[in-house]
Amino acid sequence: MLSGNWRLEGYRTYGTGMYRYDSVDKTLVKERVAQFRDQTRRFLAGQLSDDEFRHLRLRNGLYIQRHAPMLRVAIPYGLLSSKQLRTLGSIARRYDRGYGHFTTRQNIQYNWPKLEDVPDILAELAEVEMHAIQTSGNCIRNTTSDHLAGVSPDELQDPRPWCELIRQWSTFHPEFTYLPRKFKIAVTGAAKDRAASLVHDVGLHIVRAPSGELGFEILAGGGLGRTPIIGQVVREFLPREHLLTYLEAILRVYNLEGRRDNIHKARIKILVRSLGIEEFRRRVEAEWELTREAGPRVEDAEIARLSGFFDPPAYRSLADGEPAAGKSTAFRAWYRYNTAAHKVPGYRAVYVSLKKPDVAPGDITDAQMELIADLADRYSFGEVRVTHTQNLLLADVEQDKTFELWQTLEKAGLATPNIGTLTDMICCPGLDFCSLANAGSIDVAKLINERFDDYDYIYDLGELDVKMSGCMNACGHHHVGHIGILGVDKSGEEWYQITIGGAAGADASLGQVIGPSVAKTDVAETIARLLEVYVERRLPEERFLDTVRRLGVKPFKERVYAAPIAA
Amino acid sequence: MPRRLLRDGRIVEDDWSYRAESADAAALILTFAEWQTERAAWMARGERLGVVLQPADNVELLAPDISRLELIGAQFSGPSEGRGYSQARVLREQWKFKGELRATGFVRRDQLFFMARCGFNSFEMADADLEGAAEALSTFSKAYQPSNDAGLPFKLQSLRPAGA
C-alpha cells in the first residue's frame, strides 16, 4: 500500500493535444496483447470453456454477435490522432468489411473480424497506442468526455488530463475487474453537458468552490437500460487531489454491496436507489474516511504533467471573420449547423457528420477514415475527436479554411448539414448486427430519413435529439432523446415504443411513453404527427423539448392516436 | 493425496485442513459461521486457526480477531464473483492482516494477477491448472495502481521513478 504521487515520470510536452504513451503504457498494452493471444490459443485448443473464455474476451471488448465476433476498440475520451484513425481504417479494410461503427461512448466497433485474427488486430492497435481493454465486461469501461474539451468557450477547465488519469487508474484495477456489472464514468468541465454524464454510473463535473479552488461535483447512480435513472449528487465538492480515493470508495461500496443475483438489478443505480442517496452517501463517506489518507493522492504536479499533453496547439493569431458571407446556401447551412464556436478567435470546431440519410448512423468506411485523417493533418493539427452523438469532430479549424474543407467533405459524403437536428439521430446497431436486439434500428433511421428530406422543414424544427435503441438495453439512449424510439418484439414482429421529453444534458430528464407501440412502417408518420403539434403550439424560440415540457404528453398523444396511420 | 496449492509463487502441499475434512487437524480452517458461533471453543484448543469467508460475509466482523488468525480465505463462487478482491484489500490495508490470505473456489490462472495485487498470497486451484499457474502472477510487469503484493517473488512498479 502506497501513498504519495500518482505516477512520476518526467515531463514531456508534445503540444499535439493528445496523451502519448510512455514506457509503462507501451509495456502494458503489449503484455495485454500477449495475454489475450494466449487466452485465445487456450480457448481454440479446448483448454478454456466457452463460459470461462467469455469472461476473458469480454474484458477485451470481444463479443460473439449475430454474424461474427464484434470487437470494440477504446478511444479514450474520444481523442484520436490522424495516425490512429488511419490504422482504424486499415484494420477495417484488412480484417473487416471496409467499415467501422462509432458508438455513443466514443468507441469504435468492428462487426466482422475473425476470432483468430483478433490478437493480430490488437497488436496493430498497440503499435499506435490503442487497445480494447475493458471495453466490455463487468469492469470500469472507457472514460468518456466532452468532445469540445479544450476548445469550447463555456469550459471551466479542460477535463482531458483528468480523463487520462482515470484511464490509467482504472486500467487493470485489481479490485474492480469483476464488478457486479459494467461501470461507466463520464467527465465534463463545461457549463453544457455534452457527455450525458447524468446517465452514467458516475458523472464527474469540474466545479469551482466559493474559495476559488477547483474540484469535482460527484454524481452516481445514473444509467439507462431497462431501468433508466438520472444520477444523483453524492458530493457537491470534492477537492481534486482526492479524486481517486473517492472513486475507490464508491466502487468498493458498489463491489461489496451491489446485487449479483440478478443481472438486471446489478448496476450501481439499483444500489443507490434501494439504499437511498443519503444512505449510499453515508457508506461511501465512511469508506473514504478509512482510505483517503492511505490511498493515492493526485498531486498538482502530476495533473500539471498530464495537462502538458493537452496544451493548446500552435494557433495562429487571427480574428473572427464571416466565412459564410457571400457563399452558397449549401455552405451557409453547413457552416451554421456543422461548425461550433471556438474559444480562440478565427477558429471553428467542425463536425464531420456520420448521419448521411442512406448510411447507418455512426458508420464510416475505411476510405473515409483515411480521408478524415488527411484532413485532420491539413486543417486541425492532426487530431480527430469522436462525439457522444456518433459523429466526428475536427476541433481546431481556421475559419477561412472551412470552405475548402467543406468542399472536400461534401464530395466524400461527410458534410450532411444536420448536426443537432432531426436527422442527426443516435442509433444502436440493432437487429442487423446485435444478438440482444428485438428490432431493427438502422432501417427505421432510413425510413425517417426518407420521410424527412426537406431541410427547410428540418431547420425550422430546430434542435431536436432523436435517439433509437433496438432493445431495452438502451445503447441508443432512447430514454434521453427529445424523441426516443425503442424497438420491442411483439409476437415476433418488430414494433416501436415512442417516448417524448427526454434530455441528456445538464437538464437531463427521462422521456415519457406516448402510448401503445407502433409498427415499423408507422414510426415516421408518428414522428410527423408529434412534430405537427409542436409546430402549431410552440412559442417563439421554443425547442420541441421545451414545448413537451410545457404542454405535457397529452396533446401529442391525442394527435398520434386520433386517426389510424394509413401506411 | 494431500492438496497442493500455489503459495508465495511456489507449488506446495497444503498444511491446513478444512473442518469438514478433519476436525482434529493441527491447522484448521473454519467457516465464518462456525467461527462466529463456536469461537471460544476453537480458541481454547490452542492450535493454528483459519477462517474462510463467503462472498457475502462482512469482513468487518472479523476485525477484532485478526491477530488470532493465521489464515483467512475468501471463497470465489464463480467466474463473475468479485467481492473477494475487496475483502482482501480491506483485510490487508485497513486491518493490516499479515497472515496467509487464500483464494478458494473458482480460481483460475487468469485471475491470479489481480488477486495477488489485492493481497492474496495463496491460491487453491485444480491440480491440472496448478502447473504453470505461477507464470500468471507476472502477466504484467507494470501497473498503474499501488499494490499489496510486495511480498511476492516479483516486484511490480507502483510508483515509477523519474525517467522510467
3D architecture notes:
With 567 residues, chain A is an alpha+beta fold. Chain A has 4 domains: 23-127, Sulfite Reductase Hemoprotein, domain 2 (Alpha-Beta Complex); 151-306, Sulfite Reductase Hemoprotein, domain 1 (2-Layer Sandwich); 329-411, Alpha-Beta Plaits (2-Layer Sandwich); 426-562, 2-Layer Sandwich (Sulfite Reductase Hemoprotein, domain 1). Chain A is 35% helix and 17% strand. Chain A is built from 17 helices and 21 strands. In chain A, strands 16, 17, 18, 19, 20 and 21 form a 6-stranded mixed beta sheet that branches. In chain A, a hairpin with a 4-residue loop joins strand 1 and strand 2 (69-73). The radius of gyration of chain A is 23 Å and the shape is globular. In chain A, 56% of the residues are buried. In chain B, 23% of the residues lie in helices and 21% in strands. In chain B, helix 4 links the parallel strand 7 (100-105) and strand 8. In chain B, strands 2-1-8-7-6-5-4-3 form an 8-stranded mixed beta sheet. Chain B has a single domain, classed as TIM Barrel. Chain B is built from 5 helices and 8 strands, in the order E-E-E-E-H-H-E-E-H-E-H-E-H. Chain B is of the alpha/beta class and 164 residues long. The chains are: A alpha+beta (567), B alpha/beta (164). Chains A and B meet through helix 1, helix 2 and helix 6 of A and helix 3 and helix 4 of B.
